[in-house]
Amino acid sequence: MTAFASPVTLTGAHVRLEPLRAEHHDALVQAVRDGQLWQLWYTAIPTPEGMAAEIERRLDLQAKGSMCPFVVIDPVTHQAAGMTTYMNIDAANRRVEIGSTWYRQSVQRTPLNTEAKRLLLAHAFEQLNCIAVEFRTHFFNQQSRRAIERLGAKLDGILRSHQINPHPLGAGALRDTCVYSIIASEWPNVRTHLDFQLSRNRTEEPRSC
């Protein structure tokens, strides 16, 4: 049976999203070391030593039908720039979450994130016929929240004491999760908004979400 969100390559002017494979390991280790991203206490970004396990985890979820993981490629340098996914896939209700996203520091504040989200949203709404696309992030991840809001997503609410933070700097702390979404009827306006942003080559402040 074909998965609701099957692996696919999505290509734009500023970014290429390729299906994640085990062979991407070394390139992703190099990417995550650019900015030592795993030190951010309010995110769940893999360490260099934990990258193989994280790739295996994402591919296992793909096999189970709940995730479609991508490696983010910078088409200028042809280097891996990070990871992103369709996750918490709900095929019966045609909903996906875009998340588990991180980018190497050197590509942050560039159009890469905007176009990556534009590609993922277009595929979700125009090929997968999604009813809604969701985004979730830590309450204290202000950069991620601003990036999500700039996409045109609306805050659905805050899940208070939603998760226990596993990061050593915040171990045991309870995470409040901000839940955002874009629904199908909003996509035409959001698409126009994102295309306008990209036409202006707008800078931004992406982190993880």
Q: Which helices and strands, and how do they pair?
A:
Blueprint: E1 10-11, E2 16-19, H1 25-33, H2 51-63, E3 67-74, E4 79-90, E5 95-103, H3 112-127, E6 132-138, H4 142-151, E7 154-164, E8 174-183, H5 187-199
Parallel strand pairs: 5-6
Antiparallel strand pairs: 1-2, 2-3, 3-4, 4-5, 6-8, 7-8
Helix pairs in contact: 3-5
- The pLDDT mean sits at 90
Q: Could you please say which CATH topology applies here?
A: Aminopeptidase
The domain count comes to 1
The biggest beta sheet is recorded as:
8 strands, mixed
**Which quaternary structure do these chains form?**
single chain
Number of helices: 5
Whole-number radius of gyration?
16 Å
Strand content: 25-35%
Labels describing this entry:
about 210 residues, alpha+beta, Aminopeptidase, eight-stranded mixed β-sheet, 5 helices, globular, disordered C terminus
Structure write-up:
The chain is α+β, with helices and mostly antiparallel strands. It has a single domain (about 10-200), classed as Aminopeptidase (3-Layer(aba) Sandwich). The protein is built from 5 helices and 8 strands. The chain has helices at about 25-35, 50-65, 110-125, 140-150, 185-200; strands at about 10, 15-20, 65-75, 80-90, 95-105, 130-140, 155-165, 175-185. It is globular, with a radius of gyration of 16 Å.
